[in-house]
Amino acid sequence: MSGSSGLVGSAFCKALESQGGEALRLVRRSPNREAGEFLWNPATKECDLTGIGRLDGVIHLAGKSVADHRWNDANKKELRDSRILGSEILVDELLKLEEKPKVLISASAVGIYGNRGDELLEEGSSKGDDFLSVLCQDWEKATHKAKEGGIRVANARIGLVLSKSGGALKKMLLPFKFGLGGRLGSGKQWMSWITLDDLVRVLFFALETETLEGPFNAVAPNPRTNLQFTKDLGRVLGRPTIFPVPAFMLRLIFGEIADWLLLVSQRVDSKVLRESGFTFDSVELEDGFRKVLAK
Ligand SMILES: NC(=O)c1ccc[n+]([C@@H]2O[C@H](COP(=O)([O-])OP(=O)(O)OC[C@H]3O[C@@H](n4cnc5c(N)ncnc54)[C@H](OP(=O)(O)O)[C@@H]3O)[C@@H](O)[C@H]2O)c1
């Protein structure tokens, strides 16, 4: 696994290990081989899988956080390199293995569709041409070479992951708990979400489902508009949500990120997962919030 220290990776490893499975981790620091760690670093183009042995599957989640800094040319390059160069070097090393893994599950994001208003987006829908969308397209493409070695490749187009221990929801909780929550911009933008627990289940499902190949949307069945999302969260927390934040203020504070992470509208349908027989534990957002906040 790459990105094993992150929100999704650490939850997946914990679940795998609690079931008696073994997670081997790609790390960017000096690896502890006895603990199943292997060195890789997209920035230095290093990846050393020597002695890794048989792998049932590879989960590739690594990528510099898109939300932690205002975007500029330098960190846009890091956002791209960490994902695209990272995928290229990982795939090259996987193809060199004597015993190749059966499957590579690689992260992608619903950002691939761009800003799409009320349109319902399926895996076959057209893609955007903004920075994040092109990044996701190139990220997915960089994994395709693995197919040449007979590896099944599935690209999880992940939506907003809900957890109280990390990601966007953790950042929202404090203002909402103080009664300072409110819609962002018009509040009409669609948010396609998934609970962290369901995403971990999706990753197991993708590993085990041999017919699942290519891109699939990893989002719960019922996306909500930002206004609905705000009200659902306020209701679950028992707090008012009367402080809207206008779009111009978001742009002033966050720069370009405001348009592409906070105001962007993506109403995404997880058609491939549904048709493959996956069932979500959290189907409605309010129930999802209750489960996530109770953990
Ligand atoms: N969370 C969401 O809402 C969401 C939504 C859509 C898509 N995704 C995608 O899903 C993946 C996992 O998400 P997450 O929330 O678990 O992300 P995360 O918590 O930010 O973790 C990502 C991991 O990537 C590795 N990483 C960070 N900077 C890196 C760099 N410059 N080069 C190489 N690796 C780097 C780190 O792992 P190590 O330190 O162990 O190397 C980090 O723990 C990410 O690629 C993310 O873009 C997430």
Secondary structure layout plus pairing:
Elements: H1 7-18, E1 25-27, E2 37-41, E3 46-47, E4 57-60, H2 73-96, E5 103-109, E6 120-121, H3 131-144, E7 152-158, E8 160-162, H4 167-177, E9 190-191, E10 193-195, H5 196-208, E11 214-218, E12 224-225, H6 226-237, H7 247-254, H8 256-262, E13 267-268, H9 271-276, H10 285-294
Parallel strand pairs: 1-2, 4-5, 5-7, 6-13, 7-11, 8-10
Antiparallel strand pairs: 2-3, 9-12
Helix pairs in contact: 1-5, 2-3, 6-10, 7-8
The protein binds NADP nicotinamide-adenine-dinucleotide phosphate.
NADP nicotinamide-adenine-dinucleotide phosphate (NAP) binds near residues 4, 28, 62, 78 and 82.
Supply the key terms.
4-stranded parallel β-sheet, alpha/beta, binds NADP nicotinamide-adenine-dinucleotide phosphate, Rossmann fold
